[in-house]
Design goal:
The protein is mainly alpha-helical and 104 residues long. The chain has a domain of 60 residues. It has 3 helices and no strands. The protein starts with 20 loop residues before the first helix and ends in a 5-residue tail after the last helix.
Length: 104
């Protein structure tokens, strides 16, 4: 005979939060539409989305820092093209013209 132990359910911590009338109405609407069973479920989902967004932002920041570091290192190695102010517009136009061409 195989016996599986049931995981113990710990009590969920509770918090008192203050919402704007608009936020309260939004949650009420989401619960009344059946999207969520209760307000707590809706707030937990919102917090999951916030956590995901923060993780994504952290990854974007890490990638941006890597690109900045690579750019600084390229500058230090002398790997750059110097442009006069008068040539900047045409240089940027050439970049967007190249990147906007459809892929084949």
């Amino acid at each position: 005979m195989i016996v599986f132990a049931q995981p113990r359910k710990l009590p969920m911590p509770t918090r008192n939060i203050s919402l704007t009338p608009e936020q309260d109405a939004f949650i009420d609407k989401a619960v009344k539409s059946g999207e969520y069973q209760n307000a707590s479920e809706a707030v937990r989902d919102a917090l999951r989305v916030l956590q995901q967004r923060r993780q994504e932002d952290a990854l974007k920041l890490k990638a941006l820092r890597a690109h900045v570091k690579a750019g600084v290192e390229a500058l230090e190695r002398g790997e750059f093209t110097e442009l006069a102010d008068a040539d900047l517009d045409s240089y940027f136009d050439s970049l967007t013209a190249t990147s906007s061409k459809p892929a084949r």
